[in-house]
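Kindly inspect this chain:
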Amino acid sequence: MKTFVIGDIHGRCAQLTSLLDMLPRDPSADTLIFLGDLIDRGFDAPGCVEQVFNLCRGNPERVICLRGNHEQMMLDFIDGSGDIWVTPVTGGERTFEQYTGRLLSARTEAELDEARRLISSSVPAEHLAFFRRLPFYHEDEYAFYVHAGLDQGKHPRDSRPQSLLWLRDMEFYKNYRGKPCVFGHTPTAFLPLRGRLGRHGIYISNSAIGIDSGYNHQSPLSGLSLPDFTLYQTFADGREETHHITSFIPEALKAMQKRAGIVV
C-alpha cells in the first residue's frame, strides 16, 4: 500500500488532472491525500474543488483532503469573521470571479456585504459543506500530513488549528525530528536552502518534508508517494517529470522505507 500526497493546487485544474493521471495509484489499496489550498490564484478553482470533491465522495476511505488556509479564509469571509480573503495578496478575487461571474469590488462596507452575499449564493452548497468538513490533519503508518506545520514537540491533534493552517517556523523546518511530517503552504523556494533537493525543488530536512513547489507559470504541481519517495510533477506547459529520490533521505525516513521492504 502506498500513500500519494499532492501539494497546494491553487486553481491549476489542468495540472491537477495531468498529475492524477500520472499517479500509479490503486484506488482500492492506496491512499490519496490533498494538503489543501485547492482555490485562489489559478484559472479554475471551481473545477479543482469539483474534481477533489468527487474523488473524496467516491472513495472516502482512501481519498482525504485537508483544509488549507485559503479555504479557511474563504469560509471566514462568508461567515463574516474576517475579510483577508478579498485582499489582493491572497488571490481570492480570482476564485470570487470564477464562482460569481462578477469582478470583485470591496472598497466599502456596502461592497463587502454585497461581495459576501454574492459568493455565498454562488458557491454550490455541496462545495461549502465540503470545505466545512475538511480535517486539519491526517496520519497513517508513514507520516503526519498537515497543510502548514506543527506546534513544537506536539502531535497534530494537540497542535493549534492556527499552526496547522498558517505556521511558518524555521525551527520546525530545520529541526523537526518526530514522525515524518509532509506539509505544503510555504513554497519550497522560501524554505532553508540546505533542505531543498535538486532541480525538482521539494524540501527534506530531518523529518520535515515540504512539497509546495510554488505557484507561477514555471512552477510544477507536485505529488509524492510514500514510502518509496517517488516524486511526480506536472507543469503549465504540459511537461511531466518523475523523480525517484534516493539521496539525502534522513535516517528516520530510511527506517520507514526499510520497514516497507524498500531497498534504496
